[in-house]
Design a protein that fits this description.
Elements: E1 2-5, E2 8-11, H1 13-16, H2 28-45, E3 50-54, H3 62-80, E4 85-92, E5 99-106, H4 130-133, E6 139-143, H5 150-153, E7 164-168
Antiparallel strand pairs: 1-2, 3-5, 3-6, 4-5, 4-7
Length: 194
Amino acid sequence: MVFRERGWEVHTLSHCSKGEGVPKHWKPGNQEILKQEVGNWLGDLAPWDAFVTWTFDRIVTAYGAMFWAKRHLRWLEKAAEQPVYGFVGAEKGKSGGLIHLHGLLGNVKHMNFFCGNRLLRGQFGQKCCLVHAWPCGYARVFPYDPQLGAKHYVSKYITKDLAEWELFGLPIAPQTAFGHKGAEFTQNQGAKSI
């Protein structure tokens, strides 16, 4: 929602809740408040399992990055054999300005985050683990720590210059990971996320 006050455009929080980012003229203090509020909201929104970073092996637009995020989440649902939900935010890198994604995922706790293997450059989209499953470039996947909360992981991307973000497939029922069948993504207790 935008309204004019004494010749200035004033953006309300509803502007930000659509994934459109924060106006650059907002004071840093307001941005900090927004980060805290969105972080608390995301943390209470759903039980999160993983924090992810997804990069691209070529230049993409914010629209293209979000397209690939949606496509990958649909693929993850098939691999998980149950609904997967998430928050994904796009960020423009500091060196070179390349767009990459950060996100929180739910209903993936039963999947292997990292298989322990290092793949050759350019080998993406493998079914061995969540790190290697990302089809577009390098990925990092870490277990979500609820003690740190969503504000630690992703709310800062709401107030960045690019600030594109989206919510996907929020749960309508409790997680069903304990009744899961998918053998190809069994969590390896000895492997650590990179």
